[in-house]
Amino acid sequence: MSRLQAEHLYKVFGRRPDQAVQKLENGTDREELRADGTTAAVIDASFTVEPGQIFVVMGLSGSGKSTLLRMLNGLLEPTAGRVLFDDQDLTALSPRELRDVRSAKISMVFQHFALFPHRSVLENAAYGLEVQGVPREAREERAAHALELTGLAGWEKSWPDELSGGMQQRVGLARALATDADLLLMDESFSALDPLIRRDMQDQLLELQKRLKKTIVFITHDLNEAMRLGDRIAVMRDGRIVQQGTAEDILVRPANDYVASFIQDVDRSRVLTAGSIMEAPEKGRSHKDLVAEAPATVTAETPVAELFTPCSTSGVAVAVTDSDGGLIGVVPRTRLLAALGEEPQIDEVPAAATGSRDTKKVIASA
């Protein structure tokens, strides 16, 4: 069962929004509505997020990604469509019921820290629990544990202005974790940080996710960040989701020229995996012998970047094995080099491939 589900969400600002939705459904262009003083911020957005998954929504400024995020927890009411959280329709809840869900089950981490300058680090981390009415001793204990998880043990009594930007963002993350919410919504949470600190925060999030298995919706305009963090990625443009899939799907099969322009500078060796480029083992030879001769054994999830060294020092293929050590494929040097230089071709495929109602162009895998 999906943890979170968005069904044909629309958000229209301006006059007669319901009529605008009907026009959009009938094929009216977004720019035509804008000429009438109506802005369609999100148009027919549908997706699902599985438990324990990091779902990344990426797009340029004005693409509608932050508006979409705010509909997921009811900060913005959809003009049309539904949001289901654990099969509960959030769009049908009363304001009080929605506040109860937000305070206990959904936490948000903002781009600009949103810390209270007059509260200590511990008090900031415990704020969500204070809102819930958790007794002081219990909330401070949970907040201290959350700060420890985010690497801030020992800073509990400090003030926010004594912390670096990265440390302040860790406090914001600790505040979200302290509530033990099932769903984390992260809106450009690392984009205000310096590159090195930003990567450190990405590492921190991935490490926390291994232990906590939270369900996360992460908003970003940075494709490299999206590809590094996302189990699945949705790419938005002009209010619409133009493609959904894994990082590998989007890199190898971009849905259109817009998505292709995003991925042209991505380091394919960091996204493609051994499993995506491996070949079938050589016929007539035992798998045991092939594994024994291989310069290295890797799993299907191993990034291609980690295959260069073993492939460069041996003419024998690298062995790809399963969790039990059984051989499932090989990566010879020629296949490694070819995979990095493959030129995909544009094809027409059914709409289901991109998560849209319309037929889209996709680039077929080589």
From TrEMBL:
Domain named ABC transporter: residues: 4-263
CDD domains the UniProt entry points to: ABC_Pro_Gly_Betaine
SMART domains in the cross-refs: AAA (SM00382)
Gene Ontology molecular functions: ATP binding
Keywords assigned: ATP-binding, Nucleotide-binding, Transport
InterPro entries hit by this protein: AAA+_ATPase, ABC_osmolyte_uptake_ATP-bind, ABC_transporter-like_ATP-bd, ABC_transporter-like_CS, CBS_dom_sf, Gly-betaine_transp_ATP-bd, P-loop_NTPase
Pfam families: ABC_tran
Family per record: Belongs to the ABC transporter superfamily.
Name of protein: Glycine betaine/L-proline ABC transporter ATP-binding protein
Organism: Streptomyces halstedii
